[in-house]
Amino acid sequence: FPSHDICPVNNTIKPNSVWHFSGGYFRNFDASTLEFSTELYYKNYNNLIEYGGNIDKIINSSEAINEFYFGKGKTFGTEVFLRKNTGKVTGWVSYALGWSYRHFDEINNAKPYFANNDRRHDLSLVLMYEATKRLSFSSTFSYASGSRLNLPRSWFVIDNKVILEYSNYNAFKMPNYHRLDVAVNYKLKPIKNIKSELNLAVYNIYNRANPFSIYFNTKNENENSFDFKIKMAYLLPILPSISWTFHI
């Protein structure tokens, strides 16, 4: 049995629990040419954990355990899905609308706040077109609201030290994420009964600069001058690729 120091659940840390309620409607239309589904869901979380101490205390588990915050949360929303299975043009569209809240007595003055993974909208659209038996095209569009994060709203200097001032917890939202990928697929004539196909794809075709993370830093230029900046790290830009796939 694991020792008290490394056991993830003990007399202080209780196991997480969740109540999940959901209901949906599912139906096929036109001899299963079209598939449709929609679902409502609600989740209630208990014994969630946030760490409120300094990073150096994590090394010492006996100190870190006293820095944990325990709270609750809830998530609710709806999901819609529509798919076309047959014909020259096929594909699907899915959309999710959701809210995610957390509530800790030690955070945000004990008021509920948005969770880090709160994303209001999430949309995916996939289209495929079979021009001939050998030539086909496809495209994928993705869109998602930015996730939540906690950033300072202002800053000032006292005794040559930078003091950061925050508003409500997780009050800031990252920029929305979206991108379009396209591809062309061509099936070659079999070579000694070995089938193959060429694929040309372009990732992020309109070169959207989607942020991966946002961070801030303060730099002491000199004794009387400070530089405070909020910066972003971005995901991949436009990226073409070509492949030759064999089916043995």
Describe the structure.
The protein is 2% helix and 64% strand. The chain has 248 residues and is an all-beta fold. The strands form four sheets. Strands 1, 2, 3, 4, 5, 6, 7, 12, 13 and 16 form a ten-stranded antiparallel beta sheet that branches. Strands 8-11 form a two-stranded antiparallel sheet. Strand 14 (211-222) and strand 15 form a beta hairpin. The chain is extended, with a radius of gyration of 25 Å.
What secondary-structure arrangement, pairings included, does this model have?
Layout: E1 17-29, E2 34-51, H1 61-64, E3 68-84, E4 89-103, E5 113-114, E6 121-130, E7 135-144, E8 148-149, E9 152-158, E10 161-166, E11 172-173, E12 177-191, E13 194-203, E14 211-222, E15 225-234, E16 239-247
Antiparallel strand pairs: 1-2, 2-3, 3-4, 4-5, 4-6, 6-7, 7-12, 8-11, 9-10, 12-13, 13-16, 14-15
Class from helix and strand fractions: mainly beta
Proportion in helices: under 10%
User: Mean of residue pLDDT?
Assistant: 86
Determine the number of helices (DSSP H or I, runs of at least 4 residues): 1
- Span of the ends, CA to CA: 49 Å
Listing every helix as H and every strand as E from the N terminus to the C terminus, the arrangement reads: EEHEEEEEEEEEEEEEE
- Gyration radius, rounded: 25 Å
**How many individual β-strands?**
16
- Biggest sheet overview: 10 strands, antiparallel
Q: Provide the β-strand percentage band.
A: over 45%
What is the oligomeric state here?
single chain
| Low-confidence regions | 1-7
Q: Any idea what the shape is?
A: extended
